Protein 1
Amino acid sequence: MIFAKRLSLALAFCAAAGSAHAALVEAPVASNAYISYNNLDWAWAFPLPASDGLDLSYQSQFGWRLPTAAELQNAPKATDFMFAGANVPLGGTDPATGAYFAAANANLTGAAACATAYFSNSFSHCDWQDGGGQPFGPWFGQPGAHGFADQLVVRSVPEADTYAMLLAGLGLLGVVARRRKPARG
């Protein structure tokens, strides 16, 4: 019965989605709508596989992309998306995007990050039970994923030493600029 209900819901959403259009929210993904895990930023981006309408056209300029099979081997669990200050409060919606969690179970016990509205023109929810480590997990692209598996997206996280090198370079430019004296003529 659950399968039939989910199938009819998915077919209705797919029919409504039609061709790819702009996402519901065209802005950089808010920092409380994704997590950093294993040297990558991870966003819970879509309640179905990417081929069913995930839109990366705007977010790709910020480095968001589909994860590789190797990255998915070390993907976070759904519970890793729970943290104080996450964009979707428990039992509520994100005031900025309208994102919410559907199909929740007892493992959703606090605020959690859902970024679907940044990657879809027709969905603003994440299916909690379809996340990694949940009853209908794993994520799409992992072995054993079903046709309704939720889709993650990733981007590289600049490492702290990259920022340190940038600051050192800017400091060096400042020192060189101060030492130069204008030519008098």
Protein 2
Amino acid sequence: MKLSNSITIMLASLMLTLPAHHAIASELDAHEHGSANLDIAIDTDTIQMSFESPAVNIVGFEYTTDDKQQLLLIKQATDFLSNVDALFSLVGDVSCQIVKSSANWVTEHEEGHKEHEDHDETPLSEHAEFIAEYELTCNQLNNLAAIKVNLFEFFPAIADLDVQVIYSGGQIKQELNSNNTLIELTH
């Protein structure tokens, strides 16, 4: 019982700090094209995942647009990123129900740096990201042996995926790519 409570507290802390971490990281660092992030927290009967990627990895551009074809690409990508069953496969004798599955296109404005002595400013540059969040409630979650990540099949511009997992077996930090798509969980 104490282990479950401490894991719940640890997971809650992680989920509360992820949005704050994202906001700070977004303000300080430009994102890296070809890279994306996946954070996973697994508790007694819940899996929570947060996926973030520069928009260029998903739709090929990362700026605000009025172009109808590009707007359609954004909508299709947002809809597809909301499909947790297509993007992730759970390995093991486990049954899960989707509680939350959402994806959003998020744009950020980054102020340009002053480059000349006359203090002219460079124009504002935009960066856009896709942020998706998933929550599953599961039966027999202790039978979960691995999570297969299918993102590379659908979004080949993602070269590497930085993964962090917190679960009852500890913590995992690994980098996935199109040749290595499996997050193995040891119990």
